[in-house]
Design brief:
Number of strands: 4
Number of helices: 13
Cofactor: heme b; Ca(2+)
Helix content: 40-55%
Largest sheet: 2 strands, antiparallel
Structural class: mainly alpha
Keywords: Calcium, Disulfide bond, Heme, Hydrogen peroxide, Iron, Metal-binding, Oxidoreductase, Peroxidase, Secreted, Signal
Subcellular location: Secreted
Protein name: Peroxidase
Distance between the termini: 29 Å
CATH architecture of one domain: Orthogonal Bundle
Pfam families: peroxidase
Radius of gyration: 20 Å
CATH topology of one domain: Peroxidase, domain 1
Low-confidence stretches: 1-43
CATH class of one domain: Mainly Alpha
Strand order of the largest sheet: 1-4
């Protein structure tokens, strides 16, 4: 998901200038197994009512934290959504992204991989706060993985996006290794071929790729993720011709070729960067995509019709996005003590 993300965000020249000279601090497989034989007890499927008896107030508890975070630090929304994408694409949706590298360990955890170093602390802080509240009411019951899935949904809705039910029942993974990250996440310069192959390896379709990329309707990216497009696209020493000249000028003002501030970011969506809508797709059609991997979706004949379709119909995008999030949220789900655990502190492996 070019995500990626997802992890991850006005239409006049004045807006371009305003957005890109602002300095921000760093922003920044399989479906559940169905056993047909009666010889083994089939694993329980993910369910909307998984905690109906054990912790019926879990959604309200998490919601009280996400709503407060959204008011106090709005960047918590794209930060948490991106956190969920990065978690699910590496080892499945098991909260392994939240595990901290143990002091003295030679094995780095996922969060310390190069591709995850730009993940904003607001996302981690949100889950830490939500987990503490849930533990105070339902100790040892709700997994960090489920809390992350619920929080991501909450922020999508708070930012103006669709509300969809979150199926629960994930356990937390026992393994978190930085070495597993690079080949399992999309990158800013990924080609459409590479994206399709990656998403397919997760059981996701071309439509899922285009739909989930729509999460870039909110959020920001650091200059290092797109600077080559501005000055040396594919080794040409020229800018990417698929960038609107106004956007190119604004980006160059914020992101010089050398000596720039590593903390400067630009919004994925230059028109409505803080609103979860479908403007991302219209932007791609106007050469306003921030990343090469984003703009490529409009340039490739396999994905272009989907970009055009979602750009015209927000309701269609919201419906497809809700379905794709449920599908992604089922990737590599861990169940039972043999494969998972219920961590009391999300950053510490039991």
């Amino acid at each position: 998901m070019p995500i990626l993300s997802p992890t991850s965000s006005s239409s006049s020249s004045l807006v371009f200038t305003c957005f890109f000279i602002i300095l921000f601090v760093t922003i920044n497989s399989s479906n559940p197994v169905t056993i047909t034989t009666k010889a083994k007890r089939p694993p329980r499927q993910l369910s909307v009512n998984y905690y109906a008896k054990s912790c019926p107030q879990v959604e309200q508890l998490v919601g009280s934290i996400t709503s407060q975070q959204f008011k106090e630090t709005p960047v918590s929304a794209p930060a948490t959504i991106r956190l969920f994408f990065h978690d699910c694409f590496v080892e499945g949706c098991d909260a392994s992204i939240l595990i901290a590298t143990q002091p003295g360990s030679k094995i780095l955890a996922e969060k310390d991989a190069a591709d995850n170093r730009d993940l904003r602390t607001e996302g981690f802080d949100t889950i830490t706060r939500a987990k503490a509240l849930v533990e105070s009411k339902c100790p040892g019951i709700v997994s960090c993985a489920d809390i992350l899935a619920i929080a991501a949904r909450d922020f999508i809705h708070l930012a103006g996006g669709p509300y969809y039910v979150v199926k629960k029942g994930r356990w937390d993974g026992k393994m978190s290794m930085a070495s597993r990250v690079p080949n399992n996440l999309p990158h800013a310069n990924s080609t459409v071929d590479q994206l399709i192959k990656l998403f397919s390896s997760k059981g996701l379709t071309i439509q899922d790729l285009v739909v989930l990329s729509g999460a870039h309707t909110i959020g920001f990216a650091h200059c290092k993720n797109f600077v080559d497009r501005l000055y040396n696209y594919k080794g040409t020493k020229q800018a990417d011709p698929a960038i609107d000249p106004r956007l190119l000028k604004a980006l160059k003002m914020s992101c010089p070729q050398v000596g720039g501030n590593d903390d400067i970011v630009a919004p994925f969506d230059v028109t409505t960067p803080f609103v979860f809508d479908h403007a991302y797709y219209a932007n791609l059609q106007s050469k306003l995509g921030l990343l090469a991997s984003d703009e490529g979706l409009f340039l490739d004949p396999r994905t272009k019709p989907l970009v055009q379709s979602f750009g015209l119909d927000k309701a269609k995008f919201f419906l497809a996005f809700s379905a794709a999030m449920e599908k992604m949220g089922s990737i590599g789900v861990k169940r039972g003590r043999r494969h998972g655990e219920k961590r009391k502190v999300c950053s510490i492996h039991m």
